[in-house]
Amino acid sequence: MGWGYCIFQSRLVVCWLACDFAKVDSILAWLTFIINIVSILEINQWQIPFEIRRTKRAKRLSLKIDSHGLKVVLVTPPWMPQLLVDRFIRSHHGWIVDKWSALQKKREERPKLEHSPAYYKARARVVIRERLSHFNQHYQFDFNRVFFRDQKTRWGSCSSQRNLNFNWRLILGPSEVLDYVVVHELCHLKEMNHSPAFWSLVEVQIPDHKKWRRWLRENHLLLTF
Q1: Which sequence spans correspond to the domains of the chain?
Q2: Is the pTM of this model over 0.70?
Q3: Is it true that domain 117-223 has CATH number 3.40.50.300?
């Protein structure tokens, strides 16, 4: 006997259809893994987009800001009782407010663009190619094509076809960050990993690469708009 049930939670709509009651347990287990509840968490004067993400890969409860800086995410194993999840959230209200308020302050620090995005995209193509040529005078690595992407949090990559990809938004940050990413991807042409040998290659041209890696991790929102 067929039956259906719909769950509505904030922006989430899950439609569940089963052919017979014998499949209910397996479908429930499946739903446990895919349902992510997005809502608003109210703490004092703050209204914070909040997601509870249940995944079988999680071993414990953890909190993080999502990579785009749009919400706070609590990751939990699917078997964790909701009572413990709620208790964990309450006990970390201070952490959530501190991280979210710091994020909003970072957003306010973003510089106003003096030109159109098209201008910066064109500028990025010129500058990144120049820096690529400059650093490769030392490395002398062969590569194929260079592509420019429009992404929020991925700054560069090197493909198995020896193509190099760069995020045009690098032009909005410090020149040292752009140089670091260029050298990072160049070195992947020889070491397609992040082994000590890879970092030794990077360090030859960017001795303070750790500083600029940290800057990018902590300030990437300054390069988005």
Answers
A1: 3-108, 117-223
A2: no
A3: no
